[in-house]
Amino acid sequence: MQFHSVPNTQLHLFEAFLAQPMPVSMDVPLAATLQPALQEPAPDVFSEVSLRGAAGNCLSLLAPMLRELSLGPNARWLTLVAPPPSLTQNWLREAGLNRERILLLQPSGNQNALQLAREVLRLGRSHTVVSWFNPLSPAARQQLMAAARIGDAQSLNIRLG
Known about the structure:
Shape: globular
Number of strands: 5
CATH class: Alpha Beta
CATH superfamily: P-loop containing nucleotide triphosphate hydrolases
Mean pLDDT: 82
Distance between the termini: 59 Å
Radius of gyration: 22 Å
Low-confidence stretches: 1-41
Number of domains: 1
Number of helices: 6
Largest sheet: 5 strands, parallel
CATH topology: Rossmann fold
Order of helices and strands: HHEHEHEHEHE
Helix content: 25-40%
Strand order of the largest sheet: 1-5-4-2-3
CATH architecture: 3-Layer(aba) Sandwich
Structural class: alpha/beta
């Protein structure tokens, strides 16, 4: 068996980009153009996924996302607030989710699903709180984002339709 040494001809990922001169606007001072890059970006605490189609197809698309969230390295809960009736314990098991790290919560009494999701996010015992609001008003979105920041959590809204 013979091995041939091949010279490394692969370009580094950003070499082509860095070789190009960076445009600078003459209307804006250089310090102002660099300012956003120097600041720490605000963390994204809210995500939304819209799934359309048959319920079985939507669950098939949802399964890998929830599986990754349930199997991740974070020791906190993956909490599902008011999931659709088709998302059963049996479905969680068949989809390969870690059911020991998942909480399924339903609102009770005078509490609605939005209030429950906000409270769970605010408490910070969950790394991700998944909700099913369709539609979600801008005010409700802001409330979920504020609660997620307080609890250092992520809010994921699934829109089925």
